[in-house]
């Protein structure tokens, strides 16, 4: 049998998309539809019956909905034995523990949850974590389109936690800052001791800068998503991998190695 014949005997992955009419969901539907090794079998949005995905035989569900519905969606997928790729934000440690608990009862099911599916964004977070130990100051500035519901972004929150963990490991104390916050919020939000500033403006898609400072120098690590197609290679990578990774995979890092 030739390689081509062998390839054509591999069954396409049957994919359902939740939040299919949203900005990301619609882009995911186009990407899955265009992928030769995937079949788009269900497009579910607000008001649609979730069971459409199970009835259509989805093996993997991709969720880009909202933080207030994603947990119910995930619990349903795991109960149905359907693996899930999740880009929706709002995952606290408590939520992640809950997902791990559901997965323990369904050992064959895989879930990938990633705060950002952009390959450049994943690298930006890795570089930031690597730089963190060498700089006494660090602040994160995330910039998004004004229809975004949450702030700070999932990416900024995740970056802050990575940076904070690297600083703690290197024995760095709090960042130096003598400023009195005379107007509430002027110095941004604080996540694990790292200041995070959220900007919302028409024309933006998804952007982040991590600004490091030490004596006589600064380092800025910046990533820009100008178009939601930037997230698609990461989403498709996760769809291809998730069924062979039972349990919870956090972030794309493990899939890129
Ligand atoms: N991880 C990553 O790489 C990325 C993550 N995101 C995150 O993805 C999420 C979605 O973003 P975005 O696409 O911009 O948001 P949108 O608001 O454009 O899309 C969300 C969609 O989900 C629908 N929805 C709401 N409730 C349900 C439900 N119960 N079942 C099915 N669908 C439902 C909404 O319908 P309706 O409008 O009628 O409420 C809407 O169509 C956000 O949390 C965002 O932060 C975004 C980009 C990249
Ligand atoms: O809502 C968005 O648009 C995005 N959400 C994710 C986040 O909150 O980090 C990923 C990316 O920044 C785009």
Automatic annotation (TrEMBL):
NAD(+) binds at residues 19-24, 45, 87-89, 114-117. GO terms for cellular component: cytosol. InterPro entries: DapB_C, DapB_N, DapB_N_CS, DHDPR_bac, NAD(P)-bd_dom_sf. Residues 13-117 form the Dihydrodipicolinate reductase N-terminal domain. SUPFAM superfamilies: Glyceraldehyde-3-phosphate dehydrogenase-like, C-terminal domain (SSF55347), NAD(P)-binding Rossmann-fold domains (SSF51735). Catalyzes the conversion of 4-hydroxy-tetrahydrodipicolinate (HTPA) to tetrahydrodipicolinate. HAMAP family: DapB (MF_00102). This is 4-hydroxy-tetrahydrodipicolinate reductase. It comes from Micromonospora sp. CCTCC AA 2012012.
């Amino acid at each position: 049998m030739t390689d081509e014949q062998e390839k054509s005997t591999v069954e396409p992955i049957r994919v359902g998309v939740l939040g299919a009419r949203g900005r990301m969901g619609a882009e995911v539907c186009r990407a899955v539809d265009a992928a030769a090794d995937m079949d788009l079998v269900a497009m579910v949005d607000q008001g649609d019956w979730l069971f459409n995905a199970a009835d259509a035989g989805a093996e993997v569900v991709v969720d880009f909905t909202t933080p207030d519905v994603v947990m119910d969606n995930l619990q349903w997928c795991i109960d149905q034995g359907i693996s899930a790729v999740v880009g929706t934000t709002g995952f606290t440690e408590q939520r992640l523990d809950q997902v791990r608990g559901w997965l323990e009862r369904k050992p064959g099911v895989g879930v990938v949850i990633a705060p950002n599916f952009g390959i450049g964004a994943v690298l930006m977070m890795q570089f930031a974590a690597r730089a963190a130990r060498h700089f006494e100051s660090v602040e994160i500035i995330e910039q998004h389109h004004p229809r975004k519901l949450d702030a700070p972004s999932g990416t900024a929150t995740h970056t802050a936690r990575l940076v904070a963990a690297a600083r703690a490991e290197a024995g760095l104390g709090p960042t130096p800052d003598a400023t009195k916050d005379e107007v509430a919020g002027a110095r941004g939000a604080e996540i694990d001791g790292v200041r995070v500033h959220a900007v919302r403006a028409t024309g933006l898609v998804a952007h982040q800068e991590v600004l490091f400072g030490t004596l006589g120098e600064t380092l800025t690590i910046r990533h820009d998503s100008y178009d939601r197609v930037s997230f698609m290679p990461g989403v498709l990578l996760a769809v291809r991998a998730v069924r062979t990774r039972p349990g919870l995979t956090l972030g794309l890092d493990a899939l890129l190695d």
